[in-house]
From TrEMBL:
SUPFAM superfamilies: Acyl-CoA N-acyltransferases (Nat), Glutathione synthetase ATP-binding domain-like, NAD(P)-binding Rossmann-fold domains, Succinyl-CoA synthetase domains
A Gene Ontology molecular function term of the record: acyltransferase activity, transferring groups other than amino-acyl groups
Domain N-acetyltransferase: 19-181
Lineage of source species: Bacteria, Bacillati, Actinomycetota, Actinomycetes, Streptosporangiales
Protein known as: GNAT family N-acetyltransferase
Top-rank taxon: Bacteria
PROSITE patterns: GNAT (PS51186)
Protein's organism: Sphaerisporangium rufum
InterPro entries: Acyl_CoA_acyltransferase, ATP_grasp_subdomain_1, CoA-bd, GNAT_dom, Ligase_CoA_dom, NAD(P)-bd_dom_sf, Succ_CoA_lig_flav_dom, Succinyl-CoA_synth-like
Length: 885
């Protein structure tokens, strides 16, 4: 389980409110007594099963007094105590008594459940295996909380009480329940932001060129149905609406406030909004973290969190919800309504995307420019769009990830319902690779992003153009049922280009069935080609186009139809467009068109592209996404004979000896990998030439000699590897020559029996600072970095995903028998990938790991060189701790 972060944090409640949870302090005594006073006698009786408020007050004194044996957390809502939860370990330290008290006003918001989640994580980290709650039978609310939290539970009745025992160990069911509650809370918190009943624009100036004036104009011109309040102390009216000097003067509540004041005034405005009960704050003002004023941004966030307000921005364009007629932005033009949910970290990119989307017929359901992402981020918006009936496709322009692993879990769930398309900027690799393992050197930030998105089923695009090309196909057409494409057109050249592009994209252009070809011959002119592509010739009419499209759509060997039309031949562009759209309607198959030189819709539902490569690219992306959605969810794979406890013992012993971490020596690294089923070649460590010769006789000839030393990363580069040593004298001579060449950097050597011929592969893992553990597989040996043939995944990894990693490699034919060579044992290689993934998940202290090469033969696989570096476990949020970042 990931190490928990016990420091204070903010959490979303079921109704979208915000609670602040932290460890109980001795200074909280007065707050706890206030909590008891805010609880009815009935609530106190249900918590303590006896006595009244006097008993409760006495317990609060003990909790904040010296010698309190338990662990307790307190929750604050809008600065007031809302709940306290505790566990008190018994003498064994393996069990603990559980207790929760909530203020009456805090019942029904999910606070008790989230506090129990946090207690369970902290308890498990301390070695507490069971939390035991003794509950009165009539306390149905608490019993429901204990039943629904997702922890394995046992009940028994004793002495008039229900004893509930909760196992604290993390389980997939617990994570599923936590994610479901997180989704409900996130959706609730953004509902008022995107569908407010009333909006205040603070800083709504009278000058048309001002940002605040533009926001107000967009709200009014967009037809927002609720009250819109300009807030401007220097104006009596703005754009014909009465203006108010501050929020306190408003005649009614404001659910949403858009702040367009200078940055220096924003904090005071946020405090006024908090006092007024605003639920959502959109700060379009710049001058915060992006300008070096991170402290002001942190204070702005603190004000919003304490008041239960969600914050969009600062330094953003605003938000739009076309279904609610809400344009709370200073976009230069109102987005056309449609089915695309759009988020952008960059305002400039957002303007370009929205403008281009309208040009190609793709409208927006809702839009958020998140700017500095102080609070609301892509994770929150995915949860909002997941159940939004107005959104069919989601597009994100990202410059950074706040919590990548949480993004991956959310995107995997949301993407199963609605396609997610991401353009992520910043593809450059960073850092010095000279002193790192092959895996760590290869695991660039961009490789990590790619692995995260691929594991989550997210469609990654390189450009806004590609993003919109793919989005409009997914928004208007059903997903392709397969990779088989029929091409229909009226010009051989563009059709040939289309067929070539399909082949490059991994799409098939199959021969049409005899029945379909017969239908086409009867409907088309004699000069037409009725294979695939279907060529109507330049004289083909709109009617012939409709006949051809309908015929190939009816063919069972066709999954998608791509029409390639070159105007102005035949009966003209408009009639042909209508013919294509009419033929496609109701077919249930994917239809798209390339109308040379024209980018836009072909009818209401068929997307059109100016060039064949655009259309094929979009279709390839749609096919891959459909295949991802069709795959059954893979359960976690158990690693045979895995011994996580032994592995943990090895890591703890090494870090106890060297707390800062270090590279493991070869025998220790081999023992660690053996705990996860990875077989390492028998290896003997030696310190001189004579010992090397003896070791060679022990492991068997021919032998391999490898130099060792703390500074030797790539041994081959300095002549530190000798193979094919046939007798003791060759081994002695090789050791002496190696020592003379390398010098003091060589402190010894490893002797192995030379493995038989096979395919040299690499399997590795790295603990990425931001993205967590990554696993790599690829072509190994001395050319690993030169050829850069590798695939990455985020663990845990199942059998099917391990097989897909190997299939993605350019060297895949070598594994399956190339030019007469026998196929090698890919099942054992896949098992090593799975085992390394499990190791990286179980042991966050493993900073980097290389098995290079792994020699894979028809009989099995063996790692002949291993490197493992340990470091203190990075501080990462536990997935079992719900928290706002």
């Amino acid at each position: 389980m990931t190490r928990s972060l016990p420091e204070e944090c903010d959490v979303l409640l079921r109704d979208g409110g915000i609670a602040h949870i932290r460890a109980l302090r001795r200074a909280d005594r007065a707050a706890l007594h206030e909590l008891v006073d805010a609880s009815s006698e009935r609530s106190v009786y249900l918590r303590f099963c006896t006595g009244g408020s006097g008993t409760a007050h006495g317990h609060m004194d003990r909790m904040t007094g010296p010698g309190y044996p338990g662990r307790a957390i307190v929750a604050l809502v809008r600065g007031r105590p809302a709940g306290v939860a505790e566990y008190i370990p018994d003498g064994t330290g393996e069990r603990a008594e559980l207790g929760i008290l909530l203020a009456d006003r805090s019942h029904g918001h999910g606070l008790g459940t989230v506090m129990l989640e946090h207690l369970a994580v902290h308890a498990a980290d301390e070695g507490v295996q069971e939390l035991v709650a003794e509950v009165l039978p009539e306390n149905r609310t608490m019993l429901r909380v204990l039943d629904d939290v997702g922890l394995p539970a046992e009940r028994r009745y004793a002495g008039g009480l229900v004893e509930v025992r909760l196992s604290t160990g993390p389980t997939p069911e617990l994570l599923d329940r936590i994610d479901a509650r997180d989704h409900e809370a996130d959706r609730g918190s953004l509902a008022t932001v995107f569908a407010p009943r009333s909006v205040a624009v603070v800083g709504a100036g009278r000058e048309p060129g001002g940002v605040g004036h533009r926001v107000l104009a967009n709200l009014v011109e967009g037809g927002f149905p609720g009250p819109v309040y300009p807030v401007n102390p220097k104006a009596a009216e703005v754009r014909g609406l009465p203006a108010y000097p501050d929020l306190a003067a408003l005649p009614g509540p404001a659910d949403l406030a858009v702040v367009a004041t200078p940055a220096a005034a924003v904090l005071d405005v946020a405090r006024d909004c908090a006092a007024h009960g605003v639920r959502g704050l959109v700060v379009v003002s710049a001058g915060f973290a992006e300008a070096g004023h991170g402290g002001d941004e942190a204070e702005l966030l603190r004000i919003c969190r304490e008041a239960g307000m969600r914050l969009v921005g600062p330094n953003c364009l605003g938000i739009v919800n076309t279904a609610a007629a809400l344009n709370a932005s200073f976009l230069p033009a109102a987005p056309a309504p449609g089915r695309l949910g759009l988020m952008s970290q960059s305002g400039a990119v957002a303007v370009a995307v929205i403008d281009r989307a309208e040009q190609v017929g793709l409208g927006i359901s809702s839009f958020a420019s998140v700017g500095n992402k102080a609070d609301v981020s892509g994770n929150d918006l995915l949860q909002f769009w997941e159940d939004d009936p107005a959104t069919d496709v989601i597009a994100l322009y990202l410059e950074s990830f706040g919590n990548p692993r949480r993004f991956g879990r959310i995107a995997r769930r949301v993407g199963a319902k609605k396609p997610i398309i991401v353009v992520k900027s910043g593809r450059s690799a960073a850092g010095d690779r000279a002193v790192r393992s092959h895996t760590a050197a290869a695991a660039t930030p961009d490789a990590a992003v790619d692995a995260l998105l691929r594991s989550a089923g997210v469609i990654r695009e390189d450009s806004v153009q590609d993003m919109l090309d793919t989005a409009r196909l997914l928004a208007f057409q059903p997903p392709p049922a397969g990779r088989r494409v029929a091409i229909v057109g009226n010009s051989g050249g563009p059709q040939a280009m289309t067929a070539d592009a399909c082949e490059q994209a991994g799409l098939a252009v199959p021969e049409l069935s005899p029945a379909t070809r017969e239908v086409l011959r009867g409907r088309l002119r004699p000069a037409a080609a009725v294979g695939n592509p279907v060529d109507l010739t330049a004289d083909g009419t709109a009617e012939e186009m409709a006949h051809a499209v309908r015929a190939v759509l009816a063919d069972p060997v066709v999954d998608a139809v791509l029409v390639v039309y070159t105007p102005p031949f035949g009966s003209g562009l408009d009639r042909t467009r209508a013919a294509i759209a009419g033929a496609a309607a109701g077919s249930g198959k994917t239809v798209l068109a390339c109308v040379a030189g024209h980018d836009g819709m072909v009818g209401e539902r068929v997307p059109g592209y100016a060039f064949p490569e655009q259309a094929v690219h979009a279709l390839g992306r749609a096919v891959a996404h459909a295949e991802w959605r069709a795959r059954p969810a893979e359960p976690p794979v158990a690693v045979p004979a895995a011994d996580a406890a032994a592995a943990r013992g090895i890591v703890q012993a090494e870090l106890a000896a060297c707390p800062a971490g270090r590279w493991l020596d070869h025998p220790t690294a081999a023992r660690l990998l053996g705990c996860y089923g990875v077989r390492v070649a028998e290896t003997v460590a030696v310190r001189d030439a004579g010992a090397a010769a003896q070791a060679a006789a022990q492991v068997g000839l021919p032998a391999v000699l490898k130099a060792t030393g703390p500074e030797l990363v790539h041994k081959s580069d300095v002549g530190g590897v000798r193979v094919g040593l046939r007798d003791a004298e060759e081994v002695r001579r090789a050791y002496a020559e190696m020592a003379a060449r390398i010098g003091d950097a060589m402190t010894g050597a490893l002797v192995q029996h030379q493995a038989g011929p096979g395919v040299e592969m690499i399997v590795g893992g790295v603990a990425h600072e931001a993205f967590g553990p990554l696993v790599m597989a690829g072509l190994g040996g001395v050319t690993a970095e030169l050829l850069a043939d590798r695939a990455f995944r985020v663990p845990p990894i199942g059998r099917a995903d391990a097989a897909r990693m190997l299939a993605e490699l350019r060297c895949a034919p070598l594994l399956h028998g190339y030019r007469g060579a026998p196929p090698v044992n890919t099942a054992e290689l896949a098992a090593y990938i799975i085992g390394v993934g499990r190791l990286m998940d179980d042991l966050p202290e493993v900073a980097e790991l290389d098995l290079n090469p792994v020699i894979v033969t028809p009989d099995g696989a063996v790692a002949v060189d291993v490197r493992v570096r340990l470091a203190p476990a990075p501080r990462r949020p536990s997935p079992y701790l719900r928290r706002l970042r």
